[in-house]
Amino acid sequence: MNVPTPEPSHPPVPAPALFAESLGRGPRLVLAHGFTQTGRLWGSIDTDLARDHRVVRVDLPGHGGSTGVAADLDEGARLVGDVGGVATYLGYSLGARICLHLALARPELVTGLVLISGTAGIDDEPGRRQRRASDGELADELDPAPGSGRTATPVAAFVRRWLDAPMFAGISAEAGGREERLRNTGAGLASSLRLAGTGTQRPLWDEIGGLEMPVLIITGERDEKFTALGTRMARAIGPAATHAVVPGAGHAPHLQDPGRVTALVRTWTDGSGGP
Question: Among residues 135, 152, 146, which one has the least CA distance to residue 191?
């Protein structure tokens, strides 16, 4: 297979613009990655989909080439929309939450929405507060406050521990992209946790029923928590939503079974539920 050579969609520019790369030709498809990743960490689905799509790989705020950009979910969604334009948006985990915010705030940009292991938020304030606290502790590890006397955890050690979590079991070292994740900085990842962690997300469950664009929700069979959330999101969105469960996969099905996830996305965008 001829793999398209990535080309910058624009040169890196000062914040608040996000860095992005584009490859391929065809209908526009914007990819928004997960926490500790970058726009280049999609297994093989980005290059595969670039055979018949114009794929735009965005580095989200606090990550990769956008490490100096600090933004909450609403601002992050605006920035992703600014660089992505009118397109189908595909987001994973953190990226799914940002793309969901974009679809609600600027639906004229989102012709279709693919959410991999995403959520519409934590319902109760005590739960959100607890999650903000735990994410804050992680952020303080990566970027301690001046004068705290704490030593920052190196990104390499943090990433190693992050990938060793049970939710990522079954992903090969190559697919996990540990080296690519080391393009991130402690300060950038900490800002993402503090400003755009799951605990900062307002519950969107009462809003997503207003989505009119086609929505494809993808979860891994072994990720029971997010498969349940995916089922709930599909019901809340209504007829516009399709929920696909990848057999044997966990929280990152696109890294564990990229062929199946690519086939799901391509079939959907070709007309079986997509734009």
Answer: 135
The secondary structure of the chain in percent helix, strand, coil, rounded to multiples of 5, reads 45, 15, 40
Q: How far apart are CA 243 and CA 75, in angstroms?
A: 27
Query: Model's pTM, two decimal places?
Result: 0.93
Contact assessment for residue 41 and residue 168, using Cβ atoms and an 8 Å cutoff: no
Q: How far apart are CA 167 and CA 17, in angstroms?
A: 32
Q: Report d(CA 196, CA 132) in Å as an integer.
A: 10
Query: Which residue in this structure is represented by tokens 């608040």?
Result: 16
What are the phi and psi torsion angles at 94 (to 5°)?
-55, -45
- The DSSP H or E segment spanning 8 is strand 7-8
Quote the tokens at residue 162. 């992050």
Measured distance CA(134)–CA(9) in Å, rounded? 36
* 186-196 and 94-105 helices, crossing angle to 10°: 50
Interval 57-83: pLDDT, tens: 999 999 999 999 999 999 999 999 999
Beta-strand (E) ranges in 174-231? 215-220
Nearest to 128 by CA among 73, 229, 205, 202: 202
For the stretch 116-167, pLDDT in tens is 999 999 999 999 999 999 999 999 999 999 988 899 999 999 999 999 999 9
Domains and CATH numbers, the chain: 7-123+202-269 (3.40.50.1820), 125-195 (no CATH)
Task: List the Cα angle 143/147/148 in 5-degree steps.
Answer: 60
**Helix, strand or coil for residue 93?**
coil
